[in-house]
Amino acid sequence: MNEEIEYEFPSKFNERYSIPTRKIIRALSENSRTSLTKLASDLNLSRRTVREKLDRIERDLDVRYTLELNEKTLGLSMPHLVVLDFNKKPDYNYITELLKKSYIPQLAFTIRGRNQVYIYALATAPDDFAYWDNAMDLLLYKYGTTLYSSEIAHKQLGFVPIRNELIERLAINPKEKELIKLLNQNSRASIQKLSKKLGKHFNTVTYTFNKLVKSGYIKRFTLTTARQNGMVPTSFLMKYKGAPNRERDSARARLAIMSDDRYSIANRYMYNASMVGSFDHFGMGVFDSYKTGYERCFLYYKQTMGTHIINMYFNAIDRVLLGRLPIRSVYVKDDYSVLEWTADIEKL
Length: 348
Hints:
This protein is α+β, with helices and mostly antiparallel strands. It is 40% helix and 25% strand.
């Protein structure tokens, strides 16, 4: 894509920020520990200009520097998406406090215009998830709750930030665990600041940090946001049925995701995953308006995958009850992971 073209897909969000600002955020989402000096050198800007642009985006979006962790390497192999569907409007403050009491929910948000909560759940053991799943069903019965649970079988794109409450329970080296928790709160923190917080010598923390990086636990030093001003975060759920040419049509549907603005801040597709259970597909995206998202996501999928879809739900995310949303962590064309579901079976 020609660098002179600011964006292929106009949006209120991208129009608000210049290309240099978007390059800064993109670079920090790929490695949030990149210094201001290096950013200034790479972008041919003054260090002061970089700092001013970064101050603005941090303020506008409530940016937090954090980690993208490798769930499988950490022994977390059973993520779930849980949908709570209420017959009447619940007390969302009560639900938030309920979610905070458990280490299992990592991200939870409400759906605009619907009495629903979506939860990204991750447990250290299957039994823990089963207990929590059933407990939520029992504790929320007064709202006429129906709970739909799906196991995330294959993450295609993106990540969900993990809470320190879960990290605390990981069966890993205690020194590395403490360092992960600090970096999860601020992945730009210097070794000197980390040493002070841990009460350890600079060289000791440097050694632990280097060991931690080599461990494979951390995929990326990145960032998240609590606000996406001028944009509409969305979610989409699908349930498929078996029909001829499903994989071919699925490849056509992926073209929408593979189309990408090189210097976009807002990820039209923050997260995509194939699931097993109540639903077969879950995704999160960000669009300049609900109308744009509906046309470019819902209608496009309906056009390409219509003969395979039993149910499809496209909704705006209204309120984040727990956790935070990623801004941008991947180049879609490089990082999109695809499975051909029938390939292994057909070889038999």
